[in-house]
Structures are given as C-alpha cells and as structure tokens.
Amino acid sequence: MNDNNTIVFEDNQFETVVGDEKQPDFYPRVKVKRWDNEVNFSVGVIDDGGTADFDGKTVTWTKDSTTATFYPIDQQNTYTPLKIRRVVKNGQLSPTEASSEYEVMRTLPKDTLKETITIADYVCPPCICVFDLMPTRRYMEVDENGDAKDFNYADKSTYGDGRNYPVYDKVPVCRIYSPYSASANPYYVDEGLHNIDIQYGHNDVPYINNVWINAIKIVVESKGVKVYQKEHPTKLFFKDGDRLVKFHSAENARGVLACYININCEYNKCYDFYKPDVEKDVRNEYAYGLQAVNPNIDHTIVDEIIEKFAELMNVQIDNTEYTVAEKTVWDTVKNLHTDVDWIRDGVRTDANWWYRNNRKGFEFEITLDEKPTTNIYPLSIKTKGLTFHKQNGPTYEERCNEFASCDPDVIGSYAVYHAEGKENNEYQTGKAFHIYRPIANDSNGWHIFCDMEIDIDNEILNITIPQNFLDTAVYPITIDPTFGYTSAGASTSANIDNIYGSLFTPPPVATWDSISAYIDWTTHSSTSINLGVYKDSDDTLVTSVEADDATGTFDDWITLPLDGVTERVSLGDVVLCSWATATAYSPAVNLHYDVVTNFPYKNKNVSYSATYPSPITWGVESTGREYSIYVTYTISDRNVNITDGENNPKGVKIWP
After folding, report:
1. Average pLDDT over the chain, rounded to whole?
2. Is the CB of residue 535 less than 8 Å from the CB of residue 574?
3. Residue pair 392/404 in contact by the 8 Å Cβ criterion
4. How large is the C-alpha radius of gyration of the chain?
5. Residue 319 to residue 116: CA distance in whole angstroms
6. What does the alpha-carbon distance between residue 112 and residue 247 come to, in Å, rounded to a whole number?
7. Is 289 helix (H, G, I), strand (E, B) or coil?
8. pTM for the whole thing?
9. Sorting pLDDT into bands at 50, 70 and 90, what band is 642?
10. Which residues of 99-132 are buried (b: 16+ CB within 10 A; e: fewer)?
11. Helix, strand, coil % in the chain, rounded to nearest 5
12. Over 80: is that where the pLDDT of 364 sits?
C-alpha cells in the first residue's frame, strides 16, 4: 500500500483508488476518477477500523463478520482446450430440460471449463424456442400455461409449400438465454432436430466455427450428400431436386456455439405459430432433414461429427456426463424455466441465468458472514461533477418495434455522466462510467438481483436485497456493486433502416475532424454504416460519411472522417446520427444508448440509402435517451466570445 494507505489502479482513461486519500488510516471504499479527476465518485462501507491486506491485485478489508474486497475486472484469461467433455450425450430432454441445460452449461464454474470444451447434444418433443429477452407475444399467441397456438396456415407458399407439416393445437414454449437482436427469431423443434450446444467460453478458440463446419462437411459428404454454403458461413444446405434446403445453423454467442443438425424435422413449421398480423420473416424457404435425400442417415451421425470435430481440434473426448451435483443445479434451474413470466417476457428475479459479459471495470464485493438485521445495505458515497441516470431497460414496445435490448444487470443500474454536459473530443459522449445492478450470491451458488438507489443529497447508496433470499441463503453471502469502464451506452437498438440521432450544440468556431458511434454488429456480408449531421433548426443535412463492406463481428467505436465541416458559426444545434444496412442473412447492427434524463433525441424509420433524406421529417422527437455518438474537432485560432445562453438556448450538452 502507499504511505497514505491507498492502492491506485490505472486503466487507460480511468484511475481507481482503494482507500481514502484524505485519511491517514485505511478505509474500505473505492474512488473512480475520470478526466484527470475533473469528476469522481467514491463509495464505501460505513465503518472503519478492521484490517486490510493487498496481494498485488486484490485489496481485502475485514472487520467482525463483514469483508470488503476490491479488485479490477480484467479481460478474462483464456486457455487452449485440451479435451471435449460430452456432458449430455444423445439426450432425450423435455423443452424445459433443454432450455435449462443450456443455462446450466453456460454457468458452470470456470475451473470446470478451464481447458475444456463441453458439448450437450439432445432431441426434445415439439416446442417453440425463443431467445434471451425476445418478447414472445410479439410473434405468438401464448396462453397462461406458456403454450403457443398453432394457426396451421393454408398458405405456406413462402416457407415450404407442399411439405407435410405436422398439425397441433398448441405446443410448449421454452426460453434459452442467448443474445437476442433483430437477427434472431423463434424456432421450431421436434424429435427430428438434433440440438448441439458447444460451450467454449473460457478457451481461446477463434477458429471454432470453421472447424465445426468442416467436421460436418466431411461426415455428411461421406454419406453421399453434397454440402453447400451461402452468404452465412454457418448455414449449411443440401440439394433436393432444384431446392436448396437448410439442414444446419449455428449461432456463435458469448462463448457458446449453439447449433443443430436436421435429421427429419419440418423446421419452418415455426411460421405456423406466428400470429396472423405478424410478418413471417422467412430466412430460407426450405428447411428440413437430411433423410429427404438419404433415408439411412439417423441421429448417430451427430456422434460421427463430434468425433471428427475432436480429431480436427486435436483434443480427446471425455464422456463424463453431468455429475450428481451438477444435475442438482440443473433440476433447480429447470423449475425456474416453467415460470410463465419467463416464457412470455424473459422476466425472472433470480440471476442464475445471467452470464455476465467480459467487461472491463472494477469490482467492489461485500461479504456478510451472518444474516443482516435489515435487507437494506447502505453504502456511503461522495461525488464530484457527475449526474446519475437510472436505467429501466427497454419497454415491451421498444423491444418489439426497435429490437431494443440490454443485459439484465443494466435494468436498475446507473449511467453516470459529466454534470456540466461536456462531451466530444476526450469526453466522447460525456459518460464517465456505469454502475451495474448488484447481484447477491450465497454459498450454495444461488444468485439474485438486488435493487439499488443513489441518493446524492444524503450521500447514500442503498442496496436492497430480497428478503426471501436472506431468509433462505446459505451464509456467507456476497453482494457485488460493479463499476463498468465504458463511455458507451448500455442498451442497444437495431440501427438497420433506422436513423437515430442525438442533439448536440457545436462550438462556434471549429474544424470538425471526425464523427464516432458505438455500434455492434454481426454480419456475414456487406454492411454499411452512415454517420450524419443535421441542422436542428430546419432538419437539413449538413454532412454525412459512409463506411461500407464491413463484415464479421464488431463491438466498439467506429470513427469516420468528416470533410468540409469547418467554422460553422451559424450552425446552431445539430443532430448527430447513425444509419445502417446489411445485405447479409439475418444481420444484426445495433447502436448503443443510455436513458439520460431530458436529453433530446430523434428517430426515423426509413429504408437505407447512401444519401440521408434532406430535409428530414422525424418519426420520433422526444427526450430521455442519449445515443453513443460524438464528434472530434479542433478549435480554430480565433477569438469568439459567445455566452452559454446565446450558444446553447436549449440547455443541452455544450462543448468543453
């Protein structure tokens, strides 16, 4: 520790101090600073004394039955896989067993997954699967039991006319926690579809898609069936006469390659469950099983493919299925998957399903050895130059209409911004960091979300732990407020064919060098991102710049040069915009944003063009959202004396 009993952690633009710089003794608190301490926030246990220890990475403070632990969250360590463990082999699972198994496999302890790829493969009876926070009722009529109605449309001309589809009254719906975006839609499963979940999350396997696809090609073509690929590299097809028929698909998300081999399933049956007023977003007109062209192919082909996959990966296969302890966890999670609120809307109070992304930041954990006398745990706070904006998560309408989404620990969290509204250049969007929703964990591995309220006036951060968790928990328990080192928004909206814009008051005399937006995308052919600037006064376009032919996976700031925007003294307020398109199969391009009180924003749903409409008629003009867009500029060498009121009549964020 330093002479003043503090530990300083530095990470790019963030400086984090554990301890209290103003006290001679160690105090269990942490301070996050931004922009050379122009703003800061500190939070700590309301106590002193105790003992503190630093092991080179983690600071641990203990007093009586309370322990506080402070440490940076680094990019997680990755390992080279040495084996494949088949935790479920040729399983026969119910829908809720299937969806809960995916969740259990995603959350196995890191030591279990170290140097190991786990595979679960299984079939299950007819059901509909939805993803993540996908609003099921957007697509389907789901009853109070969580079953979806089969409309069995007579007209199937767009999704496999002439096929002999099964007919049901209703089938159960299950929810799999895998990322949801505009690229995802529900899918139909029955005993003819062999599901394979490949968990590699803690291993460095950048080539896993290619190896898996090659294994499938080798085995399937050895059965006399030629395999074809189109624009999406993980979608595989065979020819049935003049039809190109999809039999395999894979989604690589958050360390899992989730895929299937279609043996004898009418996969497009899913569209019979869409409500009559919902457009059927058909991806492939024909999608059915390999037995259509080789009746001798059965589910044992999956064993051959996994064996070939292991051979190509140069690893051994371990057939150790789930242990008794792991199955106990699975049984517990399975019960949660029968909840209708989870099936319909993706709503659960527990956090066992939450697979936290690999974010950079700082962790502050409080461990309680005994049950507290109250379920509200207060922390003291101090703040300088910051405003705090609570994130409520996208509404049902926003999830349906914008494909808006956020991670579950964003709901109830706080986006923290510069109080003076400084943004652009080194301030980017003006966001200092993010305080994520706390999660409480007990010694049996049970996780639950807590509520959090920040009271600036009284300098208190209250964490409310669900009382029923405290009553039934196995102690000790841990509560983990987490700081995210990010200047990007924590929620996203689909940017394809949507113009999203945030208001900005530019400096009176400057050369605009570039415009940046925080965008994530997963596409497999050409993607275009167009960043533009509108005058707010008359909705005419000032300038725009396009980047095209982007492919692959991206999750970061994209920065494009701005030419010809120089010394715009009379520009007034402007709207910084992002607009996107993609020609790929089921693309996803998302712009990030935060809920920011009273901040003006504008939206327009319009088919993409290389040229922004000018003037534009906005579809939405409202307040309360800030998109992750900013400009970089150079102040011109001229003396201009314009007051805040003259230059910023609407009181929005001003240039520093």
Report:
1. 88
2. yes
3. no
4. 27
5. 12
6. 32
7. coil
8. 0.88
9. very low
10. bbbbbbbbbbeeeebeebbbbbbbbbebbbbbbb
11. 15, 40, 45
12. yes
| 8 Å CB contact between 408 and 351 | yes
CB 506 within 8 A of CB 609: no
Token duo for residue 301: 């082909």
The pairing of beta strand 127-131 with beta strand 482-484: unpaired
- One-letter amino acid identity for 231? E
- Least confident interval from 337-351, 361-375, 468-482, 508-522: 508-522
| Strand pairing report for 482-484 and 193-199 | unpaired
Residue 313 CA to chain centroid, in angstroms?
28
What's the pLDDT at 564? 56
Alpha carbons 593 and 490: distance in angstroms, whole number = 6
Domain residue extents for the chain: 7-75+362-484, 83-345, 499-647
Token digits of residue 423: 């943004």
363 half-sphere exposure, CB direction, 13 A CA radius: 21
* Domain 83-345: CATH class, spelled out: alpha beta
Write out the two tokens for 480. 């983990």
CB-CB contact of 525 with 651 (8 Å): no
Can you read off the two tokens belonging to residue 287?
């999608």
User: CA-CA distances (angstroms) from residue 95 to 60, 91, 127?
Assistant: 44, 12, 7
pLDDT of residue 24: 87
Q: What percent of the chain has pLDDT over 70?
A: 89
Query: Does the structure show a pLDDT above 90 at 411?
Result: yes
Q: Are 231 and 585 in contact (CB under 8 A)?
A: yes
pLDDT band at 565 (very low <50, low <70, confident <90, very high): low
pLDDT at 64: 94
Identity of the amino acid at 392: N
Cα 548 from chain centroid? Answer: 24
Strands 376-384 and 127-131: unpaired
Q: Specify the amino acid at residue 530.
A: N
Q: Which residues pair with 149 in a beta bridge?
A: 170
Instruction: Please state, in angstroms and as integers, the Cα–Cα distance from residue 177 to each residue in 106, 270, 384, 629, following that order.
Output: 9, 19, 38, 29
Lowest mean pLDDT among 216-230, 397-411, 630-644: 630-644
Mean pLDDT value of segment 3-29: 88
Check residue 17 and give its pLDDT: 95
Q: How far apart are CA 390 and CA 52, in angstroms?
A: 33
| CB distance 580 to 482 below 8 Å | no
CA 55 from centroid of its chain's CA atoms: 32
DSSP secondary structure letters along 187-231? EEE-TTEEEEEEE-TTB--TTHHHHHHHHHHHHHHHTT---EE-S
Give the neighbor-by-neighbor strand order of the sheet with 256-262: 228-229, 236-240, 243-253, 256-262, 193-199, 116-123, 83-92, 316-318
Distance CA 118, CA 203 (A): 11
Q: What is the pLDDT of residue 243?
A: 95
* Residues 183, 588: Cα–Cα separation, whole Å: 5
Read off the amino acid at residue 290.
L
**CA-CA distance, 472 to 375, in Å (whole number)?**
13
Containing H/E element for 111? helix 110-113
Would you give the end-to-end CA distance of the chain in angstroms? 36
Question: Alpha-carbon distance 275 to 506, whole Å?
Answer: 47
Mean pLDDT, to the nearest integer, of 126-140?
A: 89
Tell me the residue type at 310.
Answer: A
